[in-house]
Amino acid sequence: MRFLIRLLGALWLTTLIVSVGFAWYEVHQERRRLEDDLQRRATLTADAVREASERLVIRGAKTGYDRVLARFGRADRAIAIYDAFGSVIDTTPEVRKGLGSISPLVGEAIQKNAPARGFASVAGRTKLVYVLPLQDNDRPVGAAAVLIDAEPLDEIEWDLWSRTGVRFGVLMLLVTGTTWLTVRWSVTRPVARIAEWTRQLKTGRPLAPPPDADASLFGSLATEVTGLARTLARVRLAAAEEARLRLAGESLWTEERLKQFVEIRFGERPIYVVSNREPLSHVREGRSIVEVQPASGLVTALEPIMLACGGVWVAHGSGSADRVVGDRVGLPTRDPTYTLRRVWLDQQEEAGYYYGFANEGLWPLCHIVHERPQFRADDWEQYRRVNQRFAETLAEEMEKVEHPVVLAQDYHFALLPQLVKQLRPDARVALFWHIPWPNFEAFGICPWQDEILLGLLGADLIGFHTQFHCNNFLETVERTIEGRIDWESFSVVRGRHVTAVRPFPISVAPAETDTDLGADRATLRKELGVRAEWLGIGVERVDYTKGLPERIRAIRRFFERWPEMRERVVFAQIASPSRTQIPRYRALQEEVREAVRALNEDLGERGWEPIVYRERHHDHAEIRRYYRAADFCMVTSLHDGMNLVAKEYVAAQDDDEGSLILSRFTGASRELRDAWLVNPYDMEDMAAAIHDALTADPDERRSRMSRLRSHVREYNIYGWAGMLAAELARIPQPSLQRG
Ligand code: F6P
């Protein structure tokens, strides 16, 4: 109520000031116009009276004035004629008795021999008086006064002020009414609803903000409240989960447990993650800027850790609108818990470091997929420069933190550990290599193998997904550079520096059980226009390591061998375009498109397409819907460090109904033994696996998935990070002196 009174008070005052201001100006102008008009009339009349009476006065006539007075006098216009001494000679009758008040004006006109004017009250009414001297050879001999009734001027002025008063009154009523209604509809009611919504949120129920909460007025409030509610819900969930686990006597890794663990081990020090791919890019879409989460297993894995622990994530700003948004961004945007620090690369650097050395050199070198690596000196030079740049940016970010903890990611940053140690010897540095490490002969073809190994060995800890890759790495070091391998503790000793080499099989965050899985299946199939009994799913970046053409061949073979399965099975392939500047990737894109087209053309029938191909970027939420809708998922990489799609699919199967067909050449196959394991080079094997998965005894299928799900739940991403942190914490704190 007080707000309404204050608002109305302000509006009334403003309206009053504006109305009075305008009214005053209007009255002033009108009065001037009327006065000018009276003056003009008085001047004309006075000139005429002078002409008619001047001779009479010069002659000293005593009579004859009545004709002049009768001719020019009127009800609203009186005339008086004076002699040289200012005495009245004759006058129109209505003013005869009240002329005393104009004597000073008459005296002034005669004395100065010039016209005089002014207002005076004559016989009880206000008059405009204009006195003109009568002259004989320029000498004053008398005066003629014209008195025009000026009372209407006051009346008009009064009239204007009263109209202003009425106008102001009406305006006040309207302003009061509309303000009251507007405040009630646009503020009081929405605020009450927002309050009610906030109350509901506090109970942990995820509700959308009320629809009538004007975004421009309440938008940021709604965002803040939603953020608070989300945090509250997360904390509640974590506490509930912790309590549940305590009761159950289990020791599952959760977001909360990881946070506490990292805090205990490293104090409140922020964690510094370095990766090439940023967790979120800003991309131009027409005139707007949208947020895009890249298709990257690395991002899927690291984001939950940053959400749990906070810190700084240094990455290449590669989005088309990243520079517009800036080089430091709080993430997640709605409720920031960590900072993304972007590093800008020019075209030449990106071409040499990312497309060239990392993806045309190291990527095929480490994946045994018969793709010849390309090693160019220019690319190597850019790779070195960019590693240096990232190390410097990191040092800048860590300036004020003692003993910082750095988690570098992947084959883009083989040189970074050594560079960081040179700049910050007190830092504890871990590098996780997300792709396979080949045997030493294969690695030996890299012209800069020594530099790469020395760069990596700057780290205190190097992680791979499997023990097999750790062994390959240690053997490569043993055969390539000077240093001692301690096979007991799986570490490399060079001088006083020790690098531990350990397997940490990466994983995903445990999935939340949100909606009804059965309903999800039905809705998505309807959206896809799929009427088939079974839906299969594949989710990949279009990369030659993923075995996409091999999978399509296997699906063709499956329908050829079991024709009765036609129209009963549809396979949805989500294909995210990747590294398209590299010709090999563009060629693969074409090859896959063509294989899908040919298969659909050869086997498809009216109303049934064997493969639904979706070639675009899909965000996590969209992909998750596919996972939940699918009866089976195919992961057929020819060689893969881990492959998180396999684990994501398993995590999404709340009702244990799905089946996973998994390449035995993925890191994931070492853990997910209950999947249908296949050799992706063997088309018959893969086709048979699809058939087996679909026709298996439902109990067997469910128990396989149930075991897979417990494994992924138990060995989740928080556990991965926890193990990594535990291993890093075991490393003695390096000295404080900086390089
Ligand atoms: O595993 C290697 C990796 O870096 C993963 O993080 C991710 O799946 C993929 O490569 C992403 O590739 P890019 O960042 O080049 O698109």
Search tags:
739 residues; alpha/beta; 10-stranded mixed sheet; 18% strand; elongated; binds 6-O-phosphono-beta-D-fructofuranose
What is the count of helical runs? Answer: 22
Give the fraction of residues assigned to helices: 40-55%
How much strand content do the residues show? 15-25%
What is the CA-CA span between the terminal residues?
Answer: 65 Å
By oligomeric state, this entry counts as single chain
Number of strands: 23
Low-confidence parts, pLDDT < 50 over ≥5 residues?
Answer: none
Shape type: elongated
SS content category: alpha/beta
Mean pLDDT, to the nearest integer, reads 90
Biggest β-sheet description: 10 strands, mixed
Bound molecules: 6-O-phosphono-beta-D-fructofuranose
- Give, in spatial order, the strands making up the sheet with the most strands: 10-11-9-6-12-13-14-17-16-15
Radius of gyration: 46 Å
Could you give the topology of this structure?
Elements: H1 2-59, H2 65-72, E1 77-83, E2 88-91, H3 103-112, E3 116-122, E4 125-136, E5 139-149, H4 151-202, H5 215-248, H6 255-266, E6 271-275, E7 281-285, E8 288-292, H7 297-309, E9 311-316, H8 322-325, E10 328-331, E11 338-343, H9 347-366, H10 377-397, E12 405-409, H11 416-423, E13 428-432, H12 440-443, H13 449-456, E14 461-464, H14 467-480, E15 484-486, E16 491-494, E17 497-503, H15 517-528, E18 534-541, H16 548-561, E19 569-576, H17 583-603, E20 611-615, H18 620-629, E21 632-635, H19 644-651, E22 659-663, E23 676-678, H20 683-695, H21 698-714, H22 717-730
Parallel strand pairs: 6-9, 6-12, 9-11, 12-13, 13-14, 14-17, 18-19, 18-21, 19-20, 21-22, 22-23
Antiparallel strand pairs: 1-2, 1-5, 3-4, 4-5, 7-8, 10-11, 15-16, 16-17
The structure holds 6-O-phosphono-beta-D-fructofuranose (F6P).
